[in-house]
## 1
Amino acid sequence: MKTSAAAARFGSPLWRDKTLASAAMRDMEKLSAAAASKTGGTVNFMEVCGTHTMAIAASGMRRLLPKELRMLSGPGCPVCVTSQGDIDRVLALAGLPDVIITTFGDMMKVKGSKGLDLNSMRERGADVRVVYSPLDAVALAEANPGREVVFIGVGFETTAPVIAAAVARAKKLGLKNFSSTAFFKLVPPALEMLLSDPENRIHGFMLPGHVSAIIGLAPYRFVAEKRRVPCVVTGFEPLDILAGINMLLRQVVSGEPRVEDEYFRAVPQDGNPAARKLMAEAFTVSAASWRAIGTLKGTGLSFSKAYAAFDAVKKFRVPYKDAPEPKGCLCGQILLGKALPPDCRLFGKACTPSSAVGPCMVSSEGACAAWFKYGG
C-alpha cells in the first residue's frame, strides 16, 4: 500500500526512523566536539518551547547527548511564565458571584500566593469549567445570557489568535456577558530578554514550531544578525530534534549564525498572515508580567481599543498586585536556563505533580514535570 503524500509529510514513521537517528547521533558527536572548541568547552542550546522540553524528556534523548552539549529549558511554557500576580487575578475572578470561569485544563492546579488554585476555588463553590476551545466559552455565554462567562487567556502567539477569533465571534453575536484575560507573552522579546542578561551562556536557540507557524521566521532575524546567536525552528519528533540540534551545531562550527527552518513541512517562512491579522485587530503590544522576572515593556499583548469591552480584568476591576514566588521554588531560574529542575530542593519532595508548588511542575509542558516523569 502506497503512503499518501500527507502521511509522508507529517507522519511519525519517517521522523522516528532509527537508522536516520543513529546517523544523526554520530554526526552530533563529531559536531559537538568541534563546536565546544569554539565555545570554550560546553555548548549550551536552549529549547524555548515547553513541548520540545517534554519531547526531549519522553524520548530519553537527554541521556544520549554528547558530554559537551547541554540542552536548557526556556520560557516557552505558557502556564509557567504567567506571573504569580496574574494567577491571583485569575483566582479573584473565580471568586466573583454569578461568574463562570472557563479555562484550559493546565490552569486548574496553578497555585496563587495564598495557596489556592482553581480546583480549590471550585471546591469552595466557584463555577469553574474546563473547555477545549475559547469558542466553547463563547457558546456558553450565548446559552447563559444571565451569567458572566470569563475565559482565562494565557499563552504566546500560538494561543492569542484563537482567543482573538473568540472575542471577534462574541462581538459579532453582540454578547455583553463574555470576556477574557489577555495574559499573553511574545517569544521574540523573550529571546531579547534572555540575551540581554550578561550572565547568559546561550550558544543557540531551538525555536518553537507552533509559534513560528504563526509569526514566521522574520521576527527572529535580530537574534542571528544582531546578537550573533544561531537559531533553528524545529519540529517535535525525535528526528526533528536531532536534526535541529545538528543544524545549530553546524552554525556554531561555521561561525555563521542564521535562522533556519528544520520544520519546513509545517512552518512557512511567512507564518500565518490570517492569524496575525486577527491578533493585530484584537490586541496591541503592551507590557507583560513574567514569573520571577517582573513587568517588561513590549513583551506582551493586551486588548485593543476595538475590543476593550472584552478585557475581563478591566471589566471587573481586578488590579494587578505583585506577589512573591513560592518559598524555595526555582521555577523562575529554570525558565531562564540558569537552573535545572534537580537543582531545586523542593523537586520530587515537597513539589510533585500531585502536589505542585510551582507551575513548572503543574503544566504538561513544564520542565519540572518532564524531569519528574521521565528523568534527566
## 2
Amino acid sequence: MTDAGNRPVASSVFVDERTDGPGAIRLSENDPAAPFYRVLMKLRAPVAMRDMMLAPVRACYRGEGLTVDPAELPPGAAQLYPQVSVSTRAVPSNAGPIRCECFAPPGEGPRPMMLYLHGGGFVVGRSEDTAFVTSRIAAENNVVVLSVNYRWAPEWPFPAGLDDCMAVLRWMREAGGEIGGDPSRILVGGDSAGGNLAAALPIRAREERISILAAALLCPVTDFHFEKFPSFERLAPTGAVIDAPFMAFARAAYLTTQQQWPHPWASPARGDLKGYPPTLLISGGADPLVDENRAFAENLTAAGVKVDHLIADAMPHGFYFFPGLLKESDAAFTAIGTFLAESLRRL
C-alpha cells in the first residue's frame, strides 16, 4: 500500500488544493439513477450528505463569517517569535508540489530538522493554524521545522495524506541542506490527526530504511478502535473540542473500510514497534483520547522504546495551542524542549 493515488500529474497546483481525489463524489448522466439525482439537485445543495457535513465543518474551522477583535486574542506567532523566519517550500511529489512552511531560527546550519504535521481530523487544517506551535519549537530548540500541508480526506482517503508526509520526509533526507537542515538528524512531530501521521511515519519509514531520531506527539490518534477505551466512552459523548460524532466522521472520511482500522500506517499502536524511535506523548487529562495515548505508551515500553508521557490534568484536546492562557501549555513546551535536547544528545 505505497503512494496510493499518487499517479504522476503535470500540475502546478499544490496537493492540498487538489479536489480530484478518488474519494470525490462524481455523478454521471449515464447513471441509471440520473433522473433521480437531477431532481435531488433542485431540492438541496450539495447533494451528497457527506458534502453537507463537510462544508460547515471546513467553514467553521476557518472561522468564516466571524468578526474578531484582535485585542481579544493572544498574540500571534510572528509577534511572539519575530526572529523565526518563515518561508514556503514546494516539495515535489508524484501527486504534485506539496506546500510546506519552513520555520527557521536565526543562526547558521546545519541544524536538526523536524517534520511537523497539523491536526484537523484529516478533513481540514493547514500549517498556518499551528504556526505558534512550530515557531515556538523552532525558537526554543534551535530546530528547523518543516510544516506540511498534506491532502485532506475524504477526497483523498488513506493513505494519501501519509504519502505526502513520506514524500516530504524523503526530500528532507535528500535535500534538507537547502533549508539549513542536517539530513542525519530528522525528528517528527504533530498534533491530533497530524500526530497520527507523525506516529505512523517511523513505521513506514523503517520499510525504506529512513532513520527518524525521535517523535513528539501531541494528543495523537494512535488507534482507530477508540471506542474501546474508557476515557473515550466517558468523555467523547459531550467533548468540547472533539467528540464521538466528529471522531466517527473523521475516521470514516479517512479510512474507507473497517479493514483499514488496524493497519499499522493507520493505527500505529497496533503495529510492530520494535526499533521505534524515542517518543514523547503529550495528552490532556480531559481529552477523550487520553487512555488511548496511555495504551500506546505501554505498547512502546513493552517494545523496549524510551517513552515520556506528560498528561496535563483536566486539560482538553489541543490545550497547548494558544500562548499565555494556561500554565499547562508552557509545561508541554518545556517537556518538548527537554525531550528534544535528550534525543539530540544521544547521537
## 3
Amino acid sequence: MTYTLASPIIEEIREVTGGQPVVVAFSGGLDSTTVAALAKEALGPDRVLLVTVNMGMYNYRRGNEIVLEMAERLGLQQRCLLGQFMQDRIQRFGPACNRCTREIKLGMVKRAAQGRLVLTGANRSDTWGQMGLKLCNGYYAPLLEYDKPQIRQIAQELGITPPKIGESPGREGCKLKHLLKPLVNPDYHGRAVAEANEVLLAAIRREGWPAELANVKVIGPLSRNIGLVNLRPLPPEPIRSRILQEIEAIPALDEVHLVETPIHLVIKASPAITNDPHARYWVHHGRLAPDFAFPITVEWVPSTNNRLHTFHVVAFAPVGETVRSSHDAGSSRFQERDLACLTPSAPQ
C-alpha cells in the first residue's frame, strides 16, 4: 500500500525498533491509535501489544468501549491495567495531569512492557511533545514532530477514524481532569466529578444536543463541591433545565451552575506556580481555558499550605461581578479566612 505522510514514519519505526516487538501506550484516541496502526504496518500485528491503563470510575464508559472497539478494529492484542488507586494518591495534593501521565500511565505501561520499547502518542500539539525527546529511557514517540492536523491526515491515510467520547473537540478520556481541587476524599471529591460528567454526557446524548464541548468542572473549598457545567453550544432553555436538574440530583455536589458568560476564577496555588509566570500562563491558557465554554480570567492567590503541590480553584463569579466572600472590605486581596470551612489540617 502506498502512503505519503505515513511512509517515512513506518520506515523510522522499523529502523528504531530493529523489528523487535513493542508495546503501545494505548488510550483509543487519535494519537495512540495512529501510533498503533503505524507500528502494525511497520512490524506486523504479532509484534505489537496495546497496553491501556484504566482509571476506574474516572474513565468514561464510552472511552472504555472505544478502547476495545479500536483494538478489535486494528486486529491487535490489548491488555488493561488498573490505575485508579495510584490516581487517588497522586491527585491528593492538587491537579497533576503531567505527573499522572508520567508516573501512572507511562510508568505502569513501561513496567508491563518488560524491556520492550514503549511507543507513545506524544506530538507537537501537547506539552509532552513540545518538551520531550523522541527516543528516551525506553520510550519512543514516532509522532513527536507532527501536529494534530497532520496526525489526522496520517490516520486518514491508514483508514482509521477513532470515535469521540463527546466531552471535547481536543483531548478526551479522563473525568478527573475536571476536578480543579485536591482529591482528598475520593468518595466525595472524586465521585462528584466522576458522576457529574457521566450524567452530563448521557443527558446530551439522550437530548440529541450536538455539543462539541461538555464537562462539569468541580471547584470550591474542600468541604463544598461546586459544579460548573460547560456546554458549547448552549442548548435552549428546556434542554438546559432538564440537564441541570439531573446533575443537581447528584448527592456529592452541593451547588451546580451553568457557565453562560465569561467567568472569573480565584485560584490558590503553590509557590512553584504563583512565582513562575510561565507556569501561571500554562495553567490558565493551556490547562483550564480550553475546557471552559466561555473565556476565563484568573486571580492568583499564594497558598500558605505546603501540602498543596499545584493549584486549587476555590471560587468563581461571572466577569464583572464580585466573587462571593472573596474580598475583605476595603481590600482587593483574597483572604484565606473567607474559606472558613477549610479545616487547618486539610490541604488547601
## 4
Amino acid sequence: MSQDNLSIKNTLSNVVSLEAHESKISPLVESQSKFLASSLSLSTADLEFSQSSTPAPDLVCLSHLRWNFVYQRPQHLLTRCAKKRRVFVIEEPIFDAAQDGKLDIIQHESGVWVVVPHLPENLTEAAINSIQQRLIDQLFAEVQIHNYILWYYTPMAMAFTRHLEPLVTVYDCMDELSLFAGAPPSLKACEAELFKRAELVFTGGQSLYEVKRNQHPNVYAFPSSIDKAHFAQARNFKADPLDQADIPHPRLGFFGVIDERMDLELIAGIAEAKPNWHLVIIGPVVKIDPAILPCHKNIHYLGGKNYQELPDYIAGWDVALLPFARNESTRFISPTKTPEYLAAGKPVVSTSIRDVVNPYGQMDMVYIADTVAQFITAIEAALHQNSDPSWRTKVDTFLAQTSWDSTWGGMIQLVESVINPRKDRTAKIHNSEVKKLAN
C-alpha cells in the first residue's frame, strides 16, 4: 500500500475514512485537537509495522454497542486484548447523507480501532447488508487483516459476515438480546446460525449459561467481573463532584443505562415514601421517553458520566441501588454494577435478579428486595452496614477471586486452544507434502 491509499486524521485519536465507491482513500489530513497542542501523524507504514510486529492474530469484533457509549464488558475485555494484537470493533451503522456508504475508523486511546459504518438513509435490509459486506471486505484489504478471530456481540452481523473465514469464531453472549425492547424479528434465526458457526460461546452470567449450554457443545460462563482498584478509589472520599455536592444525605445511588429494565414505579415509590432520602440517578436515558421518568424533588438525574468519574460519585453515596424491573428483558442479566458497587465499599440493595441473588444475596453481601416496603426496610439496614467489619471482609475476600484480567485470560486461553490444534494440523500437512516432494 502506498501512503496515498490511506487517509488518517489525528486528533486525540487516529482516524481513517474508507469510501466504498473509491479504489483509493483520500489524502493524508492533519487537524488540531483541543486536547493536544499539535497534531500527531501516523503513516501507512505504522499500520503495516503494527501488523507485522505482532504475531498474534487480529481480533475483529461485531458489536451492537457503541464503544463510547457506556464502559462495560466489551471495553473491559477488548482493551486487554489490544495489548497484544490489533483489535477492530465494527459498530452498527449510522444512517446519514453518506453517498454509497463509508467507514470512519477511529483509534481509541486504548489501542482499539473503532469502525463506524455510515450508510445512506432509506435502504432496504438487503442493501444495508450488501454495502456493509463490501465495506468490511475493503477494510480487510486496506489494513491487511488476514489471520483473525471473529468476536460477535450481535448475531445480526451474520447477515454480512458469513462469507468471512476466521481462524476461530467466538460468540460472547452478554445478554438475551431477543428479549430486549425493539429486538429485530430475525435475531433468533441469526443467533441460531451463529451457534452453528462459532467454535466457542461465552455467556455474561450463570443464568444465561444455563439457557445456552444446551444449544452449543462449547459454552462457558464468564460472569461479570471487576476492576477492583478502579472502584476501590471510592473508599477514600475526597470531595463531591459539583453537581452532586449540594444533594443532601442519605443518598441512594444508581449508575447505568436508564431504559425498560429499570423499575420506575419502585423508584417513585421510594421517593414518595421517604422524602428525606435522596436518589442520585446517573446514566443516559435510552429507548424510553424521558417524560415518563418519575419527577420528585428528591430524585436527581445527573446524566451520563464517563468511567473515570464514577468512583468520585459513588464515594458520596450512602447506599447503592439495583432497581431493576422483573420482566423479560431482565430475566438473564448479570449486572456488572454489583461487584463494582461492592468494590467501592457501598452496601447494595437489589431486586431479585437471579445473577444477583446467586451468589451475592445468598452470601449476604447484597440485600434483596422487590416491593417498595421491602426496599425501604433493606435500605434502612444497609445504612448501618458500613460499620460492620465482617461484611467488608466477606466482600473483599469474594472480590479477590475475580478480575477482568483473569476473565480475559481464561477466554483467550480457550480461543488459543482452538487455534493451535489447527496450526499443528496445517504444519503436519505441510511437512507431509514436503516429504513427498523430497522423495
